[in-house]
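Hey all, sorry for the wall of text incoming. These are the two entities for the joint prediction.
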Amino acid sequence: MIRHSWRRLTNQNRIPFALVLLAVVLLVNFMLQPNLLEPATMNSSMRIFLPLILVAVGQTIVILAGGIDISAGAIVSITNAILATQIGTRGDTGTAMLMMLAVLFVGMAAGAVNGFFVAILRLQPIITTYATSFLFGGLALLILPSPGGGMPSTFTSFYRETRPLGIPLAFFIIALIMLAWYGIRQTRYGRYLFAVGGNADAAYQTGVPVNMVQFSTYMISGLMAAFGGIAITLLTGSGNAQIGDSLTLAAITAVVIGGTALSGGSGTIAGAIIGAIILSLLPNLISFANIETWWQTFLNAAIIVIALALPGFMNLLRRRRT
Amino acid sequence: MSIGRIAIPPPLAAVLLAIVLFLLSGLLPNGFGSNPDIAASQATNIIRLAVFLGIVAAGQTLVIISGAEGIDLSAGAVVTLSAIVTYSIVNGNNENVLLALPAALIVGAAVGFVNGLGVTYLRIAPLVMTLGMAGVVTGLIIVITQGSVTGAVAPVMTQVIARPLVLGIPGAILIWAVFGALMWFLLQRTTYGKNLFAVGTNRITSRLSGVNVTGMVVGTYALAGMLAGLAGFLVVGNTGVVHIRIGDPFLFPSIAAVAVGGTLLTGGKGSYWGTMAGALVLTLITSLLTTMQMPESVRRMVLGGTLLIMISIYGRQRGLRQ
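and here's what came out:
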């Protein structure tokens, strides 16, 4: 019992850890780039961060329920490929709205494929979604073999420039997600999520529909990846069937930085959002620090690995001390 | 896999599948038809191509047998790195080969060692750790090469690896045969092999019966990295040229080859000869798709679909109801 509450305590300590990290990164970034917090700069940063934030939120839900979704990045690519080819830079508003609605269903359908194999056939989540990432990635390439297509500028400039009350659009979307998550947590479904991730067998024995909960998390991840795909298409205004590839690992890393345990059962959406912002600020930092271009890929990757290692490293120190 | 009452062991099923695929490839318009000479030379060629995948997949087999969702997604990047290291050290001189081979092995083992440390001491999920390291290694490659690779392979490498060596059999195939025997010996006749299967089946009982689990896992990742390093050395010896993405196409098939060969992706059970058969199957699938002039998108989807089918057959987890 004591051990249990100790564990809960350390888990709760993890959001402040992410916040401290955010403060440090922001401070260093601010010193290198003094206009960082000006509304225009903030808007141009946040609109770049939003796709990762959206994917990371979906990933958190899957991980909370004890799974993982390696295919999220490929789903982003599919939605980007569909939007870029079906709407085009000269597309009319009606088609654009319709296609954006359609890709949300495509995302959920892709999530349902994952859910079918993982929750119904009971295959291992990691290897299954790794396999479907090739399936979805191939589909994206089939739709859009070489980069091209696009979105009408009315839509892209709406995404890029909208600042209600002078606050970047991304903040409103984040607030909406937090509000929705707060609502979900109060419901029975919210409690099921944590129960399934904490101990699926025990949850099953107490009557939790484990399979359906797991299935639903993959659909949510697919849906959030589709939202991420819409955001990234509006941001870039163009199509590239491999645009989502790098988002998968980044989203998982954001979730880990945010204090969610990869083993499932504990974690927060807010942590993942903070984690995504930290991760997105790092390339900023590297490019403003005047580091030679050759080193940028290495530094980015090394920072991701270090970020992944931090929770484990702190645990190691804690274990040594006791 | 069982058909009726006769149970066929997975490795044998993979061999049968390889034979069926090979015969099918003969029926293609530009296949070997009914000419046994061309058929024999095509078979030799397929086996020669499978060698490199087979050796990358050897390391993959070891980490997957070690259990706890073991997997090595850095293998592709390590193949590239060691190929580049080999290429620049050898620089066209036969004498330098004896220096390049250990260098390639050490570079691979070092990356694998870091993977092992992250997975054991820092408790990072193997998939996330090795995917992160793949990024780090790719970054390192960019730093080392700065966009251009200078060097050359030595004549002796081409002679031994790519050309027919004895009785018209290419050296690569002979190397693979010896390598396969060594892998069998390692898994079936050494303490390491015995402990590896024990660790993969149940880490707690292994620890209680005196196995140094952490040491075993770190060693296995290091060994897997070393084998990827060996594969990189052989790949560059075979192709004679090197490019910055030379190892990437081996990654996904190496995992699929292990699955096709019947090694349990949950760990604890498997064989290298199954993986060898799996490597043949994957090479055949790839070459069939190339012969049929399928685009990259279709190839990816077929590879993803193959892995999905294989894990659906072999990889079902225990249902909740039992």
